[in-house]
From TrEMBL, chain A:
A matching Pfam family: BPD_transp_1
Family: Belongs to the binding-protein-dependent transport system permease family. CysTW subfamily.
Statement: the UniProt record of this protein carries the keyword Cell membrane: yes
Subcellular location: Cell membrane
Annotated ranges, domain ABC transmembrane type-1: 68-256
CC annotations in GO: plasma membrane
Domain of life, per lineage: Bacteria
Keyword list, A-Z: Cell membrane, Membrane, Transmembrane, Transmembrane helix, Transport
InterPro entries: Bact_Polyamine_Transport (IPR051789), MetI-like (IPR000515), MetI-like_sf (IPR035906)
Transmembrane segments: 12-36, 64-91, 103-122, 134-152, 240-259
Name under which the protein is recorded: Spermidine/putrescine ABC transporter permease
Automatic annotation (TrEMBL), chain B:
GO MF annotation list: ATP binding; ATP hydrolysis activity; transmembrane transporter activity
Domain (ABC transporter) ranges: 5-235
Cellular component annotations (GO), alphabetically ordered: ATP-binding cassette (ABC) transporter complex
Protein source organism: Metarhizobium album
UniProt similarity note: Belongs to the ABC transporter superfamily.
Name the record gives this protein: Polyamine ABC transporter ATP-binding protein
Keywords carried by this UniProt record: ATP-binding, Nucleotide-binding, Transport
Gene Ontology biological process terms in this record: putrescine transport
Length: 271, 330
């Protein structure tokens, strides 16, 4: 039920809503606070003192850079694969009719509905079955399975809103397949791909479960953090990294949200 | 003279569905040609075959003497005005109109000058900076027309071009399209399910049914001499009479078409007896609905003639040549 315009919510409801939001976001804030604490062995509240030394310490730790580098590499390549396959699949499903179209649409979306642990175990047993050694590429393949879904979902929604006769109109006016893609298809689905790609990147960047099953000796940033928590020294380094991860994943998701929202005006049909 | 478009026994089957089934068709250069028919009759598929969006599953198509099979849409000197106009939403009006020249590599100054000229031709000068979403339906239609014409096509295809417009705008666009076609001398092929539109605009009309042409001719021929019952029924307005009714009315026992304006009132006792059911005032004429020979007929009376009272008994007559006999087959 929707209350009338201008009708004010009772105080109790406001407090409840505020408490709910605090419950959701206070822990994140705590992570930020502990990044500045002077106590390095345990998370003590209140922090005995504040310092920015951990930023310098983090900067000088090669293992952080290694993990970050690997995460960026995995996320970038997985996103690139997802953009290519997701767009092609979305184009096929939304622009043509063929036998098994609905089944394919469902199978593509399935990996994101499955728990990560199932995907992880499945991939791990498949890799061992075919004697594929675990490497960066197995991690990338694992991540690509769910990155494709995100790109596909964004692209298919935009394709459906884009009138099919636009492509025919372009061909009719003398543009070949490549020109049509460049001048008509891409401008119409561009923001959807950007949004899908950003979401895919963010998903891959903080993925733990599938990575655990598909990785060898390498640790991506989230895995490195998990291992770091067990060690007693220089704990705030983890918090500094966590802050960076929050920023790195939060900004693209925010951007993706605004891009797809604006897309409503961009992608109307020819009518 | 080479035909603008020639279909030789052309078929387009989609699995079991025979959308176009053995069509023979010749469209002369500079002709305003209408493809008329109900939805699913194959007329739009024929248009798409000319545009190159569909390839025939059988037969042969020539466009100005050149084989069209296997030639993609972007290599045909043919342009289409789409039913939903299909203007590019991400481009402004000028870029929309200049699109065809842009992909052909025409330099910016030239293509914008020609696009401006095309917009002037369709009476939308200075609209170049706007977006398709800011225009009305009628304006978008004109932009779609300009976008096609700027490429100087040898054949312009129009797919239900006036379907989305309101009545007044439609009548205005009918006249404009006709004068534009006469001025440019381009072959126009347009698809419509509106018989009034086809008859008033086209030089020649092909009536489609079930994937084939049932009759082809000038609007007058189609209207006055329908070959088969389907044409008389679809073109409308005429009285289509079954064989038994014709026999009771004193004619041959065959299907016939009898135009409302060919029927005259006669002094009682002389002609066919009839009873007036309804009368409607149409401005220049009055239309009666009468019952005669067990069937309902429309009769068109000139406005200066007195309208008989509803329910009164009258007598009707027509010339022997006015009853146009035709085949039952669709």
């Amino acid at each position: 039920m929707r209350s009338d315009r201008g009708h004010r919510a009772p105080l109790v409801l406001k407090i409840a809503a505020g408490a709910g939001l605090l419950f959701l976001h206070l822990p994140i804030l705590l992570i930020f606070v502990y990044a500045f604490t002077t106590e390095e062995k345990s998370y003590q509240w209140p922090p005995p003192g504040f310092t920015t030394q951990w930023f310098a310490v983090t900067w000088n730790r090669p293992d952080v850079w290694q993990a970050l580098g690997l995460s960026v590499q995995v996320a970038t390549i997985a996103t690139a694969i997802a953009l290519l396959l997701g767009t092609l699949c979305a184009a096929a499903v939304s622009q043509t009719k063929f036998f098994g179209r609905e089944a394919i649409s469902l199978l593509v979306i399935l990996p994101i509905a499955l728990p990560g642990i199932i995907t992880g175990i499945a991939l791990r047993s498949a890799f061992s079955l075919f004697d594929i050694p675990f490497s960066v590429w197995t991690i990338i393949l694992g991540h690509a399975t769910f990155c494709v879904v995100v790109v596909y979902n964004n692209a298919v929604a935009r394709f459906r809103r884009t009138s099919g006769s636009l492509i025919e109109a372009s061909m009719d006016l003398g543009a070949d397949g490549f020109q049509t893609f460049r001048h008509v298809v891409l401008p119409n689905i561009g923001t959807a791909l950007l949004a899908g790609g950003m979401l895919a990147f963010a998903l891959s960047f903080d993925e733990v479960i599938v990575t655990t099953f598909t990785g060898g000796q390498q640790s991506t940033l989230p895995i490195w953090m998990l291992e770091e928590l067990i060690r007693p020294r220089q704990r705030p380094v983890t918090n500094v990294v966590a802050m960076v991860v929050v920023l790195v994943t939060f900004l693209p998701i925010l951007a993706a949200y605004y891009l797809t929202r604006d897309g409503d005006q961009v992608a109307g049909s020819g009518k | 003279m080479t035909a603008a478009v020639e279909f030789q026994n052309v078929s387009r089957h989609f699995g079991q569905v025979r959308a176009v089934d053995g069509v023979n068709l010749t469209i002369a250069p500079g002709e305003f040609f209408a493809m008329l028919g109900p939805s699913g009759s194959g007329k739009t598929t024929c248009l798409r075959l000319i545009a190159g969006f569909e390839q025939p599953t059988g037969g042969h198509i020539e466009i100005f003497g050149e084989t069209a099979e296997g030639v993609p849409p972007y290599r045909r000197n043919v342009n289409t005005v789409f039913q939903d106009y299909a203007l590019f939403p991400h481009l402004n009006i000028l870029d929309n109109v200049a699109y065809g020249l842009m992909v052909k590599g025409v330099d910016k100054a030239t293509r914008y000058r020609e696009a401006e000229a095309a917009l002037e031709l369709v009476k939308l000068p200075g609209y170049g900076a706007r977006r398709p979403g800011q225009l009305s339906g009628g304006q978008r239609q004109r932009v779609a027309l300009a976008r096609a014409l700027v490429n100087k096509p040898r054949v312009l295809l129009l797919d239900e071009p006036l379907g989305a417009l309101d009545l007044k705008l439609r009548e205005q666009m009918q006249e404009e399209l006709k004068s534009l076609q006469r001025a440019l001398g381009i072959t126009f092929v347009f698809v419509t399910h509106d018989q009034g539109e086809a008859l008033s605009m086209a030089d020649r009309v092909a009536v489609f049914n079930n994937g084939n042409i049932v009759q082809e001719g000038t609007p007058e021929e189609i209207y006055k001499q329908p070959k088969v019952r389907f044409v008389a029924d679809f073109v409308g307005s005429s009285n289509v009479l079954a064989p038994d009714v014709m026999k009771r009315l004193g004619g041959e026992a065959r299907w016939a078409s009898l135009r409302p304006e060919a029927i005259r009132l006669k002094p009682t006792g002389e002609g066919v007896p009839a009873k007036v059911l309804q009368a409607s005032f149409l401005g220049a004429s009055n239309r009666l609905l009468v019952e005669a020979g067990g069937a309902k007929l429309h009769v068109m009376l000139p406005a200066d003639q007195a309208v008989p009272a509803i329910g009164s008994d009258i007598a009707l007559g027509w010339g022997l040549a006015d009853a146009h006999y035709m085949d039952d087959a669709a």
